[in-house]
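Good morning C.,

I know you're traveling, so I'll keep this short. The sequence:
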Amino acid sequence: MSSLSKTLGVLDLFGPQQLQLDPETIAERMGLSRATVYRYVKDLCEAGLLSRVGAGSYALGPRIIELDWMMRQYDPILIAGREPMQRLAEETGLAVFASVFYDGHIINTYITDPNEQYHFSFGRGHPLPPFRGAQSKVLVAYQKGRRLLKLFEEQISKDPNNPYSSRSWSEFARAAKKIRKDGYCITHDELNLGLTGIAAPIMLMEGKEVVGSVSAVGTTDTFKLLRQERVIDLVIQTTRLIATNMQAQHSTSDA
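The C-alpha cells, ready to paste straight into the viewer:
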C-alpha cells in the first residue's frame, strides 16, 4: 500500500458513530507509530480534509463540503431526476429521497421535503442499514446472485436489528424476489417510527442494471389520506422518467 493510500486510509476511520478522532486512537487502529500518524494528519489538514476540533481531536474538514457540492453538480441521477422528484414531492406532499448503493453502503444522496416537517433518522449522506427501509430494501433486492448472498451473510444476518438476521437465506431470498417481482417496496416504521415509505428502483440497460432508487416517505396518517396505489404509480413513473433522462444524457454525451 502506498503512502498516499495509507494517508487517505485515515478518513476511513470516520463514520456516523465516530465523528472525531485523536491521533492516539488513529495510531492504535491503524497499527502505526504516533509520529507517522501526526504526519498523515498534518497532510490531511493542509489539504482541508481534516480540521482540528477541541483538544487534540480531529474531524472531517471543509474541503469535504466543497467536494460534496461539486459531486452534486454532476451526479447523473440528480441531473436527470431533481425536477421529477420535486414534482413528486409537490404532488403527494411527501418527502422524496434518491438513494444509491456505493461501496457496500446505501446512502441517501438527495432529499426534498415540501413541508419540512420530518426529522429523519437517516438523512442525506448517512448510510442506511441494509434491507431496512423501503429504499434500502429495493437496492438490496436488485443485487444479483452471489452479491446478494454475500450481503446477507456478511451484513444482514449479522445485524441484530434486522428481522432477517434470525431467518434463513431462503426466506430472505424469497423476500428479495417478491420486491423484484412487484417492482416496488412498502415499509412501515422500519427506519423512523410512524413513517411509511414506498420505493422503486431506477433501472438502466433495459431493466438490467439498478443505479439507484426513489422513495416517497410520510407519516402513516398522511398515507391514509392518499390512495396508496396512486403513490406507487407516481413513484414508479418518476423512476422511469429519471432512467429515460439519464439514457438521453448518455446518448448526448456520446454524440
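Safe travels,
E.
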